[in-house]
Amino acid sequence: MSDARVHDSVPHTAGPPRPRRGALLAGSVGNFVEWYEFGVYGYFATVIAARFFTPEGGSETEGLVRTYASFALAFFFRPVGAALFGRLGDRIGRRPVLILVIALMTGATTLIGVLPTYATVGALAPWLLTFLRVVQGLSAGGEFGGAVSVMTEFAPPGRRGLYGSWQSFTVALGLLGGAGVAALLATVLTEGQLSDWGWRLPFLLTLPLGLVALRLRLRLEETPAFRYEERRERPPGREVTRAVVLGAGRVMGWSAAGYTFLVVLPSYLQNTLHAGFRQALLATVLANLGFAATIVPAGLLSDRIGRRPVLLTGTGLVVVLSVPLLNLLQDTGISNAVKGVGVCGAGAVVGLMAGPGPAMLSEMFPTSVRHTGLGLAYALSNAVFSGCAGLIITETMKRTGSVDIPAYYAAATCAVSALALATLPDNRGS
């Protein structure tokens, strides 16, 4: 299995524009629901810690660590979901698997909104929450591989970067949607109301969103590439494993920097820099606006000049700018407007990696193993470097006392990722 242009072994049978638009919409809406929920969980981490993981008299920091441990556990079930649902998607088709995973994600997320808290059922509460997080992790593992496969397999010639970037763009929209709902609730509700029952509303909102996504996916057609490739032999397992490991290395910087700047940031601002909940959410909204602004242009640019230069630019900028950015946020003498520009810029840099990333992973695998391969590469990277980001950063800061740990974490992972990306072949215009 060649790393270069494996997708080009399949004729470009993307079909007429209407199915392509339907594929983009059906694939995107599921990603929106998934990342809306993951964003909401991150934004309300301090509230969830108090409601589910902090018994009376317990430490707030310990509760937050347990909350992030539950967050990480869901991510570690994503590779399991990627393998399980990916294999199904490569055997029976992308469409039925995408229908199944959005139903699971919607059901689990909605149930979080009605769970009893620690004060009501005691130690059972964190276990119930963790179980639902596991279901979310399994479904999310199957979501990415299926959605990216659908988007890139319907893409016309020379547009896989653009089509794949819509997966990342709807991630940004989902995170923005979660941040927007959280900010709205923080504005219209008192802190007591938000902590008591207001935090449930964003999770309950997933139900109508998920039903819309389910309806769109029921109308989705199977991809032409899958119909063409479904009877072809699978490549040797060792080649697939090698590609999965390399793919995970190529996106680890994207995973780590994305979660550091876009999800972990609110809790960092509140617990380390003592910012208010609303101020922390505003910073997150700005970071995600910067993220959203560069994703699609970066994907389109990668179709013209190649994936490698765009991805290497993104990882390089994170390595150089992470520490100065955190120092900017820590400096009390710098205006909030300048800090806002800084966090917006940080999100924009992550967008440079997120734009070409889906197409890059898709091109590493032939159709017969694409759903499984790219899903596993992404899920493994996210399990280690995204799901553990909050836990690693919080625990390391607790042990070392250093407030610069988030910057070191993002920079180090992007430096390693850049080494893996340096082996990426030229695939402009493919």
Please, could you describe this protein's structure?
Helices cover 79% and strands 0% of the residues. The chain has 21 helices and no strands. Helix 13 crosses helix 19 (367-385).
Q: What's the end-to-end separation, in Å?
A: 17 Å
Average pLDDT across residues?
A: 85
How does the overall form come out from the CA principal axes? Answer: globular
Kindly estimate the percentage of residues that lie in beta strands according to DSSP. Answer: under 5%
Regions with pLDDT < 50 over 5+ consecutive residues? Answer: 4-15
Descriptive keywords:
mainly alpha; 430 residues
Secondary-structure blueprint:
Layout: H1 17-43, H2 45-52, H3 60-76, H4 78-92, H5 94-112, H6 118-121, H7 124-153, H8 160-188, H9 191-198, H10 200-204, H11 206-218, H12 224-229, H13 237-262, H14 265-271, H15 277-305, H16 307-330, H17 336-354, H18 357-362, H19 367-385, H20 389-400, H21 405-421
Helix pairs in contact: 1-5, 1-7, 1-8, 1-11, 2-3, 3-7, 3-19, 3-20, 4-5, 4-7, 4-19, 5-7, 5-11, 7-8, 7-19, 8-15, 13-17, 13-19, 13-21, 14-15, 15-16, 15-17, 16-17, 16-21
